[in-house]
From TrEMBL:
Protein name: ATPase
InterPro entries the record matches: ATPase_NBD, FGGY_C, FGGY_Carb_Kinase, FGGY_N
Assigned keywords, A-Z: Carbohydrate metabolism, Kinase, Transferase, Xylose metabolism
Domain of life (superkingdom): Bacteria
Protein family per UniProt: Belongs to the FGGY kinase family.
Length: 541
């Protein structure tokens, strides 16, 4: 990879763009849709984004499909405008492209391609009965977020749409289908729909048979294998941008059809790629609206652990993921309060400087955050045994309330739920981790989140120069990999993408580790506070 600080030669970049020596990655995150165009040295040439938010409708979190297309077109238009402003070119072609999105969830369509019920996102935790029954049947954890859990819960609930289902997929799979006509899915994203056989690189046939034999499933007019998309490993042919797809992406008609598309992936897979964590014994922590810690395994976990999602890398190798539904939403809300205060005083401070100032203050706090407690639960959190969430900040009268301790408690609480599943892998299953890489915007403030995470996991945390690039950049790299599919994905990342990448590593500080453990014990002991808040505060008001 080119040095992140290396200046881009505008003339050369313009030539590359005009010749199609580029790759485009677009990722649908929980709060932002981001598009990134990279060159053959993996440098970002242009980008665009669109902010959006999920909606709570009838007790379920969703995004309307018209907002999916509005957001996609807006993010692409912003990228095309960036190309025009930076290089004086209309963006008429790209060499390859790919789409990724938040994993899991439920998008179900009938035989005419019509959506049967509103998109049910990963954030919903109303599938507990399905999770428990399927996990016991398969002796393999089926998290509440997984697509098959949503389908089976709909069966158990006797929802009238179920017999009409002809196809269901994830958000990335849906967008890819509409742009290419292909009902396929990257194997990493597919592993969040139904268990994968990592040897055969396909859905587990034995578990498909077990699912078919469930009486209420057998009574349906469809076969489960016919409803699922085809899993593809990174580098496999996933189709091309059709003329209709080009118009969906770029309604101006400027973008030409024909670009090859990479298999659509989930945000876990693009996080692995963006952190060069696809080899066994490597891992990453990807932090955004939700957070997950991922470790690539040398073999499947030996026991059933509800705290760990058994997923795969984009190459199909087994991985364990500790996934928490909540991370930055509460943190961002508190930062917004400080922004309002700054504005009220007449102070002028940029958003980036505000975050950096507040985050840095956390390093000055007491090791255990002074006795403060915070729960960042906007939504339900399986790892904490919560079907719903309510953000709560609490403290005792003898706690040491200060800005430093407050921000430290915010960051500690954000990392606490994901630690539960990580401890299961490393302490109960003996999973070995050679390197763990932090990834996401929270790591752009030097040292702070990296140091906090090192304390939480009691492990060295590496942050690379690509830490802020995000999943869209990782998806663009997967799109570029279509031209290098003769190489193993891990070798391609090592030898080409990250060969010159710069990084910093934070070792765990013993005082911070002890402080985090004290906070974490208080966090777990105080969970009845959160449950009382759920009982007392209405979900919608």
């Amino acid at each position: 990879m080119a040095n992140a600080e290396e200046a881009i030669n505008v003339d050369q970049a313009a030539q590359d763009i005009a010749a199609g020596r580029t790759s485009l990655g677009i990722e649908f995150g929980s709060t932002r849709i981001k598009a990134v165009l990279i060159d053959e040295s993996y440098r970002t040439l242009a980008s665009g984004d669109f902010g959006w938010e999920n909606h709570l409708v009838d007790g379920l979190w969703t995004y309307p499909l018209d907002e999916v297309w509005q957001g996609l077109q807006a993010a692409y238009a912003a990228l095309a405008a960036d190309v025009k402003a930076s290089y004086g070119l209309e963006l008429t072609q790209v060499g390859s492209m790919g789409f990724s999105a938040m994993m899991h969830g439920y998008l179900a369509f009938d035989k005419s391609g019509e959506l049967l019920v509103p998109f049910r996102t990963w954030r919903n935790s109303n599938t507990g009965q399905a999770h428990e029954r399927l996990s016991q049947l398969f002796q393999f954890n089926i998290p509440e977020r997984w697509s098959i859990a949503h389908l089976y819960q709909a069966i158990l609930n006797h929802e009238p749409h179920v017999p009409q289902v002809a196809f269901f997929t994830t958000l990335a799979g849906y967008v890819h289908w509409k742009l290419t006509g292909r009902k396929v899915l990257g194997i990493g994203d597919a592993s969040g729909m139904f268990p994968i056989d990592s040897t055969a690189r396909e859905f587990d046939k034995g578990m498909l048979d077990l699912f078919r034999q469930i009486p209420e499933v057998a009574a349906q007019p469809w076969d489960i294998a016919d409803l699922l998309p085809q899993p593809l490993v990174a580098g496999q042919d996933a189709g091309v941008l059709t003329p209709e797809g080009a118009k969906l992406l770029d309604p101006t008609g400027t973008l030409q059809a024909g670009a090859p598309l990479a298999p659509p992936e989930g945000d876990a897979g693009t996080g692995m790629v963006a952190t060069n964590a696809v080899r066994p014994r490597t891992g990453n922590v990807s932090a955004g609206t939700s957070i997950f810690a991922m470790v690539v395994l040398e073999q499947r976990l030996q026991a059933l652990h509800p705290e760990v999602d058994p997923v795969t890398t984009p190459a199909g190798d087994p991985a364990g993921m500790s996934h928490a539904n909540n991370f930055t939403s509460d943190l961002n809300a508190w930062v917004g309060i400080f922004a309002d205060f700054a504005k009220a005083t007449g102070a002028s401070i940029s958003t980036n400087d505000l975050y950096a100032t507040l985050f840095r203050s956390a390093l000055e706090g007491d090791p255990d955050a002074g006795g403060l407690i915070n729960y960042c639960f906007y939504s339900g959190e399986f790892l904490a045994g919560l079907d719903e969430g309510r953000p709560v900040f609490a403290r005792g009268p003898e706690s040491r309330m200060s800005l430093a301790n407050f921000m430290r408690a915010q960051l500690f609480s954000a990392f606490s739920p994901v630690k539960i599943g990580m401890d299961v892998m490393t302490k109960q299953e003996g999973v070995q981790v050679d390197s763990l890489v932090g990834h996401g915007g929270i790591f752009t403030t030097p040292k702070v989140a990296q140091k906090i995470l090192a304390a939480a996991f009691n492990a060295p945390i590496k942050v690379m120069s690509t830490a802020a690039e995000g999943g869209a950049w990782g998806m663009a790299v997967l799109a570029d990999y279509l031209r290098h599919r003769d190489q193993e994905l891990a070798a391609y990342l090592d030898q080409q993408v990250f060969a010159q990448a710069q990084s910093t590593t934070e070792e765990p500080d013993p005082s911070d580790v002890k402080g985090f453990e004290e906070f974490f014990a208080r966090f777990q002991q105080g969970l009845p506070i959160e449950r009382a808040a759920i009982a007392a505060i209405p979900l919608e008001s």
